[in-house]
């Protein structure tokens, strides 16, 4: 059984330890925002944050996340409370086909959490592992710069302190969501 935090919630899963994290998140936890692109960790479509660092999950075995914090695109914001980067993405009309956008947003949010005032070179370096076949790189850069100017580093998504929510606590013990094998 592998235990980790997923978007601020404690979870566990009983799957083969070498299963790529991408497939565990998509198939067992039914979070479909992170995409499969190349299967070799080169394109960034599968990016999720692992302890705040953008990580390619198509090549990361689920065993590597034991006791760690995983954030997917679904954990950045909600329909009612978009992350400032998501708002900037809309404002700057970043997506065209949209396939790479979850990975782009995950990498951009990791960058801004580590460097709230990035230069254009900082952005180019941080985003170099995320490919966009539509070529919206200038708009991605503009959205990141716009968000940085608005202070995204101070924004914290609900539950980001990783404390259990009131709904997940019973008798003082955090309740854990569990997924075994392919059964939900």
TrEMBL record:
<dbReference type="Pfam" id="PF01799">
    <property type="entry name" value="Fer2_2"/>
</dbReference>
<dbReference type="Pfam" id="PF00111">
    <property type="entry name" value="Fer2"/>
</dbReference>
<dbReference type="InterPro" id="IPR006058">
    <property type="entry name" value="2Fe2S_fd_BS"/>
</dbReference>
<dbReference type="GO" id="GO:0016491">
    <property type="term" value="F:oxidoreductase activity"/>
</dbReference>
<protein>
    <submittedName>
        <fullName>Oxidoreductase</fullName>
    </submittedName>
</protein>
<dbReference type="InterPro" id="IPR002888">
    <property type="entry name" value="2Fe-2S-bd"/>
</dbReference>
<dbReference type="InterPro" id="IPR001041">
    <property type="entry name" value="2Fe-2S_ferredoxin-type"/>
</dbReference>
<feature type="domain" description="2Fe-2S ferredoxin-type">
    <location>
        <begin position="1"/>
        <end position="76"/>
    </location>
</feature>
<keyword id="KW-0408">Iron</keyword>
<dbReference type="InterPro" id="IPR051452">
    <property type="entry name" value="Diverse_Oxidoreductases"/>
</dbReference>
<keyword id="KW-0001">2Fe-2S</keyword>
<keyword id="KW-0411">Iron-sulfur</keyword>
<keyword id="KW-0479">Metal-binding</keyword>
<dbReference type="GO" id="GO:0051537">
    <property type="term" value="F:2 iron, 2 sulfur cluster binding"/>
</dbReference>
<feature type="region of interest" description="Disordered">
    <location>
        <begin position="152"/>
        <end position="184"/>
    </location>
</feature>
<dbReference type="GO" id="GO:0046872">
    <property type="term" value="F:metal ion binding"/>
</dbReference>
<dbReference type="InterPro" id="IPR012675">
    <property type="entry name" value="Beta-grasp_dom_sf"/>
</dbReference>
<dbReference type="InterPro" id="IPR036010">
    <property type="entry name" value="2Fe-2S_ferredoxin-like_sf"/>
</dbReference>
<dbReference type="InterPro" id="IPR036884">
    <property type="entry name" value="2Fe-2S-bd_dom_sf"/>
</dbReference>
<keyword id="KW-0560">Oxidoreductase</keyword>
């Amino acid at each position: 059984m592998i235990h980790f935090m997923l978007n601020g919630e404690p979870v566990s899963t009983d799957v083969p330890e070498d299963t790529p994290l991408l497939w565990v998140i998509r198939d067992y936890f039914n979070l479909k925002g992170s995409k499969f692109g190349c299967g070799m960790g080169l394109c960034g479509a599968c990016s999720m944050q692992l302890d705040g660092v953008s990580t390619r999950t198509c090549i990361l075995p689920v065993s590597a996340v034991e006791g760690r914090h995983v954030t997917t695109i679904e954990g950045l914001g909600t329909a009612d409370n978009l992350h400032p980067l998501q708002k900037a993405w809309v404002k700057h009309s970043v997506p065209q086909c949209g396939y790479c956008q979850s990975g782009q947003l995950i990498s951009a949010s990791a960058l801004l959490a580590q460097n709230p005032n990035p230069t254009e070179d900082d952005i180019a370096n941080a985003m170099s592992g995320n490919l966009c076949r539509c070529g919206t790189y200038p708009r991605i850069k503009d959205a990141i710069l716009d968000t940085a100017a608005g202070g995204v580093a101070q924004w914290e998504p609900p539950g980001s302190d990783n404390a259990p929510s009131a709904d997940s606590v019973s008798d003082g013990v955090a309740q854990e969501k569990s997924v075994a094998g392919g059964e939900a």
